[in-house]
Amino acid sequence: MTLEPQPLAPALAAARRAGRTALRLDLEGVRTKAELMRRCADALRLPQWFGGNWDALADALKDQEQLPDAAGTLLAVTSWRGYAAARPEDWETFTEVLEEAAAFWRESGTAPLEVLLAEPEPGGGAHLRGRHASGAPRERPHG
Fold first, then answer.
1. Residue 52, H or E segment
2. 112 phi and psi, to 5 degrees?
């Protein structure tokens, strides 16, 4: 399901006012899977054990210690189009991992994870477009 675009700053501010953790994952200049994993590790403050692969990212996003905020977490992914264009198969896997994690938290009845993809405005600002998990998870490549 897709939400109507929203300005980035107000969406982040609304999440914070609601007591949610608001994180930003900026993918500006990212063109490799290794760099994507490094950005994820930094933005999400992933633990030392994070292995930098799809399964490790999926595990970390479903770890109660990683997303412990009782009110939930908003993850705003910005400047993503370059990576999506450069690595379409990896981008698809990445969004599947995010969707599976969001579905996991929603189905657990605990703190939700919401992922928003930012899109540039014609005037140079950023808007967010929501991505929510829907349907059964698709199989993803290992590694």
1. none
2. -75, 155
Q: In angstroms, rounded to a whole number, what is the distance separating the alpha carbons of residues 8 and 2?
A: 15
pLDDT tens digits, residue range 116-141? 887 654 455 555 555 433 333 333 44
Question: Distance between CA 10 and CA 45 in Å, rounded?
Answer: 23
Q: What is the pTM of this model?
A: 0.78
The first and second tokens of residue 111, run together, are 């703190």
Query: Which portions of the chain are predicted below pLDDT 70?
Result: 1-7, 67-70, 119-143
Strands (E), the chain: 6-7, 21-26, 73-78, 113-120, 126-131
Placement of tokens 């210690």 in the chain: 65
